[in-house]
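Q: I'm writing a short methods note and want an example of a predicted protein-small molecule complex. Could you take the sequence and the SMILES for flavin-adenine dinucleotide and return the bound structure as tokens? Please keep the output block clean; save any remarks for afterwards.
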Amino acid sequence: METVPGSSLPIAEDGGHAAKNEVPSVPDHCEVVIIGAGPFGLSIAAHLRAQGIEFRIFGKAMNTWATQMPRGMQLKSDGFATSLYDPGRKHSYEKYCADHGIPYDDLGIAPTIESFIAHGLEFQKALVPNLEDRTVTAIETSSEGHVLKFAEGPDCVAKSLIVAAGISHFAHIPEVLSDLPRTLLSHSADHYDLSVFKGRKVAVIGAGSSAADVAGLLHQAGADTHLICRGIIWFHNKMNLPRTLYERLRWPSSVMGPSWRSFLLAKFPLLFHRFPVETRLKIVRTYLGPAPAYFSKDMVLGRVSTHLGLEPTAAAPNGDGIELTLVNSGGEARKFQADHVICATGYKATLAGLPFMSSPLLERIAAVAGTPILNTNFESSVPGLYFVGALAANSFGPVVRFACGAEFAAPRLARHLARARHKASSPAGANASQVSPARETAPAAGAEGR
Ligand SMILES: Cc1cc2nc3c(=O)[nH]c(=O)nc-3n(C[C@H](O)[C@H](O)[C@H](O)COP(=O)(O)OP(=O)(O)OC[C@H]3O[C@@H](n4cnc5c(N)ncnc54)[C@H](O)[C@@H]3O)c2cc1C
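A: Understood, no commentary inside the block.
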């Protein structure tokens, strides 16, 4: 049977993937499957391909960046920390910029979201042409492996499954505001085109990068913009370049910004993995509080109305808009009327937030603080089930929340899977798996409880 290049899916007569009613309901089998085609999924795919590992990858390339972040945004990460990763770094963001005449420097030039998405799409076309634009709706486990289900098309069974679903399912809205209709109150992740708010009065809630960026871009789009936050807003300062020797020693450069703490966390994710669980959770929880980039300052100050020291405690529809109740630290309340409210209140990454995880599978994954406990190869307590990106932060540290974390994760996972395949194909490995199927072995992760 003719198959899609690099994939075991049959080609339908119209050239697309065969629809469910056109093929027998026999699931496709595959060695490795990746869910998600963001910086992590695509970088891992490029490394698996280089190792000659058969894999399938599902999702839309760079979809979170294209649909859940505002157009016109600049990246907070420096040029050298902004990339997708292939072995040999022949398809880096720096190379993309050089090829397309886009201004680039390791430090001092903030990458734009448009150029980063374009880099990701070019990377996918060159290195991951077998990407399948399908959304995984459910995962179950069977004796054969992990069974993936889709809105359309046949199931797929994977021996190893890498969940690289990023932050797309984790947008967090404070509970007091969460009952409002999304036409009146939304999350910053609901928008990429802020021009729809032109001429409207919009309140943005939050004090971090997203809040400042969304507020600044709303103002540019012609909205009457109000930024509301509990405390004050700390903007980063622009780095003086070139840096003196003293500055480089005192605040060493790292992919997460200049400081010894960031430098160590970025360089040694495996050392972080050895820390006691409480220490790891505390570091991840407290590292890098909300602080917009230096370039957001000019977009906000003097342009956007700021309402500091106020926390929304209630909201209700009022006329065509929405009325917020804002309370200050002294307990005094005031009302604030807007046409729309955007919560730039961040993300909470938890296993339960993934809509495609079945309850029986969730119950089998040993977790701490709602996130999977991972061994040093990103494998959860369910053998062959791997998590990367935001869900791996409590195991490897904050670096895996950023695109640059894929530089560590992608080669590590690919090497591990190559070793596992080699082991399974050797006579000893094959015999061993007959005696003790991998899926029946004890949890691989550390001692933390669920
Ligand atoms: C406003 C904002 C600004 C940011 N700025 C930076 C920055 O400057 N630098 C930086 O490094 N990071 C930044 N980040 C963090 C950024 O989200 C991560 O760096 C990056 O996206 C991590 O890559 P990922 O592949 O883990 O996740 P994602 O980019 O979220 O990719 C995951 C992919 O999985 C797909 N997916 C999810 N569920 C399914 C499913 N069921 N089936 C198929 N596909 C699925 C999604 O559609 C998505 O395309 C920012 C985040 C936000 C919100």
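A: Remarks, as requested: The pocket of flavin-adenine dinucleotide is lined by residues 35-41, 58-60, 63-65, 69, 75-77, 82, 135-136, 164-168, 210, 356, 389, 402-404 (CB under 6 Å). The chain has two domains: 28-170+348-441, 175-235+291-343.
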